[in-house]
Amino acid sequence: MAFIKIEGLTKQFGGLTAVNDVDFEIEKGKITAIIGPNGAGKSTFFNLISGFHRPTSGSIIFEGIDITKTPVHIGAKLGIARTFQTTHLFEQSSVIDNVIVGHRLRTKSNLFDAVFRTRREKQEEQEAYDRAIEALDFVGLLDLVNRQVAAISQESKKRVAIALALATDPKVMFLDEPAAGINPDETDNLAELMKKIAQSGITVCTIEHKMQMIMGLADTIMVLNHGAKIAEGTPEEIKNNPIVIEAYLGGDALAEVN
Amino acid sequence: MGKLLTGRNGILFMLGLSILFPLFFLDNRYVLYVMTTSFIFIIAIYGMNLLAGYTGQLSLAHAGFFAIGAYSVGILTTKAGMNFWLALVLAVIITCVIGFALGIIALRTREHFFAIYTLIVGYLIYLLIDKWDGLTGGVRGLIGIPIPNSIGPIEFNSAVSMYYLVLLFLVLSIFIGVRIVRSLTGRTYIAIRNSEELAQTLGINTRTNKLVSFVVSVAYAGLAGGLYASLTRFIGPEIAGIEMVFNFLVYLIVGGIGTLTGPIVGTMLFIWLTQFLQSFQEYRMLIFGPILVVIVIFYPTGLAGAFYSLKHKWLGNKEQKKEKISEIESMKKTSIQSREV
After folding, report:
1. What is the structure's pLDDT at B341?
2. Å from B30 to nearest chain A CA?
């Protein structure tokens, strides 16, 4: 049984087909990358898997469960985490306060527990705090725990967003351009972090524009162009695939290469 | 000195002050009455803050729910002859039920649309009260709402006793509000305010959480309305009106939306300001308007937010100075050491 199996996934916005009949499998514990030129449908593909969009047709099977029509928050409980291109963090608050809520979906305290501050509430608050610290330790931000998010670097913010996703105890993490807007050194560090996540048993799937990073990182790469899958394989295979080169550089460039 | 001004001491000081307050004004019914009114409005604004400030849903129907609470108590006591306490409990329940029903529909909209939708809902409540003569007394209002029934030896026939009664409800409301904000539930609300998309990916059912927050929020408004009816003993449809919505907004925004002290500061300030500016009548808006504009532009989190950011700045500067001093000292030391070498 495949970990995540996507069959015939299609999404149309009015007359525009953003994702067109994509079949794809994501292997457990591996790093999978989705690449493609701007407007290729990568983000839409992510939004379909994480449940923000309903596909026009096709199906998504996660560990044998059909999640094609599952709402986002239920998907999260099943173990699907994602980050956004822009981090969406609460800038005026501290790092730890941003991450604590990540564990919320594994807790049961409700309004009643809040008002009467029951034992369950106290216990789960501690749990959520511990889990947040653990996640921040994992991404290497233990020394920034009490800093205000607005005061930390762009790369650290990306790490906080990843820690937040980790705090949900996911089985798979979808990262939407994690290295956008940060410098090459920081990009390398982030690649290391992604390897570390995969090694800890969490499957990683990422959209990325920085080819150098992806080629050294991914186990499998899928290439999208105009919403359709045009290639799939190891970084080596993708690098030498003439269709991919054409999609990225145009037909003339291919002629020149030849 | 700095340690004396910690949160806990501040709260105890304010509580002590509000308990002792009537002793200075024992024979000044006016001051006590205005203070009691401001307490009632703080309760309503606290509810509004929970929804608008912490869950990020700016509801403009709050004056309407305040009126539903007030009219529930008014009608149940005057027309059905019910005991005040029972009427008050029922008023909160009625407000919650209506809030739940309207919330299901209202929360299908977002942001500006939510604000506009709730503004219309509030206006419809106003119209309903204004036109439904048979039940609400229409423009004439409801007269002769009784004071709260006495509990054992405690009677509520004096301004002082009403003051303490409302203070008790206020303290309870603030206590519950603070507990909610600081709990995991509160963190959930703040996550929704921050980004609904992100909250969803964190496994938060945004629809259910927003609805619960909405109902809790209108419960506050209903309670405040019920107390208001019994304090003023006369209510008219204008308590659901647009001007009331505007007042609520000003109290909340100038005080500090999304802060725990903001609603208290804003409401107190404006209710007393309104009293001092009585002679200006409608023209007092000429003063309120610019204050609101200045606050929104320079201090989006209101007076409470401004206070905290100034405090942080001040403390930050102090720390920086300390760091600099220690840096200079360590430099001195190393230079001395190097000279010795």
Report:
1. 42
2. 35
